[in-house]
From TrEMBL:
Any matching Pfam family: TAXi_N
Compartment(s) where it occurs, according to its Swiss-Prot or TrEMBL record: Secreted
InterPro entries according to UniProt: Aspartic_peptidase_A1, Pepsin-like_plant, PEPTIDASE_A1, Peptidase_aspartic_dom_sf, Plant_Aspart_Prot_A1, TAXi_C, TAXi_N
Protein name per the record: Peptidase A1 domain-containing protein
Parts of the chain that traverse the membrane: none
Swiss-Prot/TrEMBL keywords: Aspartyl protease, Glycoprotein, Hydrolase, Protease, Secreted, Signal
Gene: LOC100797328
Family: Belongs to the peptidase A1 family.
Active site: D110, D317
Domain Peptidase A1: 92-430
MF-aspect GO terms: aspartic-type endopeptidase activity
Length: 437
């Protein structure tokens, strides 16, 4: 048992499974949309107006490197019993409403993790937030999960314990020594604006009520939890399952945009426009949170750089900024790109970029990621980042420290409608002006 669990057993005894009621299941299939706020947007609590565009990009690249370290820790099988993934402050934020009456919460949206959780009262140790802690005992729809219930058994065995009065306790510690401990419960989650006719609600959703939380990374006091969008059973996508046809999509905007990106579920996630391509979605049992694809090659104009892999060699992730390619494949890709562009890499490169060159007008050939069954042609904005203060272009693709695993990051996904069909086991890409979605 995690030692922190002992410290909160008495506190969690307040959440008696027999003392709180719940509401009946919700209605059938729905389509709905949520705004995603990029952490560097003026709409974000993380926004720092004193930073230059180049500084924002460089900071994002630093966060990407930190994210890679956490993914690496997670994919190390020796660490699986005690490590899950949490993003470095999160690249995208979303609003949800929890409980009855509904309480608004701003949370990190993360396609690389599963558990939905918020900080709850009474709290023995919580990180600062500028809104009152969620009080489950004041919600008419909260129910603490019993140890033998389906919500409890959905939590990995190494991350759950049974409390003194039969309540289910979760205990997640992360690769950077951060942790969250609390009670597993069910609650009504709502999306939209309170009083808005478009608001949708989902009763009896499984979530974590965190009462002993600590994070070593710096966070905003407006962010109060996390919404997991990964492939595991506790994620929002998996829980809504049949109600949304196991489909969701997002359309991400570049850093420079002042608009919100969109996260869509159910019928609203379906794309029927011309140019849609699809590739098989691969869920690996050891790593259910992550969405794997198979990258066969990258083409630069007529030049083909093959990976030689067929076993699901790349994770698609909205929380990783840069694209990471397995080291040998990266070396081959960059060598071919240098040859085609006739450029040499600049010296004294800003971390973590590995290939930059002086900015000048040039024709960039079509560069496409060749996933199994799907050729995804990227625009220069998906691959090259301009650092204005250095007057150079840097490749938004860097070598991966993961053995045999690459990551398709969010810069590469800008202005694509990316559709995840968990039931059909495929991911689709549609070139889109995401300001008009």
């Amino acid at each position: 048992m995690h030692p922190l669990v002992f410290m909160v057993f008495m506190l969690l005894a307040l959440y008696s499974p027999s003392s709180i009621s719940t509401r009946e299941a919700g209605e059938g299939l729905r389509g709905f949309s949520i705004d995603l706020i990029h952490r560097d947007s003026p709409l974000s609590p993380f926004y720092d107006p004193s930073l230059t565009p180049s500084e924002r990009i460089t900071n994002a690249a630093f966060r990407s490197s930190s994210r890679l370290n956490r993914v690496s820790h997670f994919l190390d099988e020796n660490n699986l019993p005690e490590s899950l993934l949490i993003p470095e402050n999160g690249e995208y934020l979303m609003t949800l409403y929890i409980g009855t009456p509904p309480v608004e919460r701003l949370a990190i949206a993360d396609t690389g993790s599963d558990l939905i959780w918020v900080q709850c009262s009474p709290c023995q140790n919580c990180f600062p937030q500028d809104t009152p802690l969620f009080e489950p005992l004041k919600s008419s729809t909260f129910k603490a999960a019993t140890c033998d219930s389906q919500p409890c058994t959905s939590v990995p065995p190494s991350q759950r314990q049974c409390g003194k009065v039969g309540q289910c306790i979760y205990s997640y510690s992360y690769g950077d020594k951060s942790f969250t401990v609390g009670v597993v419960g069910t609650e009504t989650l709502s999306f939209g604006s309170t009083g808005d006719a478009q608001t949708v609600s989902f009763p009896s959703s499984i979530f974590g009520c965190g009462v002993y939380n600590n994070f070593t990374f710096h966070t905003s006091d407006k962010v109060t939890g996390l919404v997991g969008l990964g492939g595991g059973p506790l994620s929002l996508v998996s829980q809504l399952g049949p109600q949304i046809g196991y489909k969701f999509s997002y359309c991400l905007l570049p850093f420079s945009s002042n608009s919100t990106s969109k996260l869509k579920f159910g019928s609203e996630a379906i794309v029927t426009t011309n140019g849609v391509v699809s590739t098989p979605l691969i869920i690996k049992p050891l790593f259910p949170s992550f969405y794997f694809l198979n990258l066969e090659a990258v083409t630069i104009g007529q030049k083909v750089v093959p990976t030689g892999r067929t076993d699901g060699n790349i994770i698609i992730d909205s929380g990783t900024v840069l694209t990471y390619l397995e080291q040998t494949f990266y070396n081959n890709f960059v060598a071919s790109l240098q040859e085609v562009l006739s450029v040499e890499s600049a010296q004294d490169l800003p971390f973590p970029f590995k290939f930059c060159f002086p900015y000048r007008d040039m024709t960039i050939p079509v560069i496409a990621f060749q996933f199994t069954g799907a050729s995804v042609a990227l625009q220069p904005k998906n691959l090259l980042i301009k650092l204005q203060d250095r007057n150079m272009l840097c490749l938004a693709v860097v070598p991966s420290s993961l053995s045999g695993i690459s990551i398709f990051g969010n810069v590469a996904q800008f202005d694509f409608q990316v559709v995840y069909d968990l039931e059909g086991k495929k991911v689709s890409f549609a070139p889109t002006d995401c300001t008009k979605v």
